[in-house]
Amino acid sequence: MSVLAGALVALRYLTVLPLPRSRVAGDLGRAAGWFPVVGLGLGGCLALASIAVDRVVPPGVGGMLLVALWAGLTGGLHLDGLADTCDGLGGSWSRERALSIMRDARSGPYGVTAIVLVLGLKAAALASLPEGLAWKVLVLAPVLGRAGPLLLVRLCPPARQEGAGHALAAGSGWPALVTGSLVAVLTSVALLGAWGALALGGSGLLAWGLAAHLRRRLGGFTGDTLGALVEVTEAGVLTLAVSLDFLELG
Description:
Layout: H1 3-14, H2 25-30, H3 35-53, H4 59-74, H5 77-90, H6 95-103, H7 109-128, H8 131-155, H9 164-171, H10 174-192, H11 194-217, H12 223-249
Helix pairs in contact: 3-4, 3-8, 3-10, 4-7, 5-6, 5-7, 5-12, 7-12, 8-10, 8-11, 8-12, 10-11, 11-12
């Protein structure tokens, strides 16, 4: 796969842009190194939007509008994965039953609650951040959110022999992880310095913890759990930024 083709596959998979789909299962995996770069582009769009939003509406409304744009740019892909993951892992189901629930297009109480909490947390965090910090965190969060899955697929096997998770694992390797990690490290340090390094480390620990849980619970990861990791990582980065800003001001 050429560099351009990999970038197009990553953009098509992670955004609503009408670009060509991957042709074979391995294409998605070979495009995985581009995931944090796509996150950087999404973050740039959100940062520009935040500068405009801050000038026309109050912070609370602005936070909600930015979260809506965030979900719209990705087509709600990761939110769907978050809901399915929480529905499957929320009860004391067997492995087979949990995987079956995660295939169901309908969202149950665990999934709906998770979406509401994550979106609400993102909006509240954005409303609480000062403008000078908000745009930096908006750039960083999507990058780290899309670097986490690259680590997760190296830490545990796919739980199914088909689907997006298996396709990602089929072609993704250490080069994708190294490339994505390099983008994540440079972005973190360039934007937030030591704070960025802390956010980077926290996102890595989150991916490691989820991988350990998924190995025990499902025998591996699925495409839904990758989407859940994206959403939780993004919300976690925003929350960490608010906490550090609060402690520094205090």
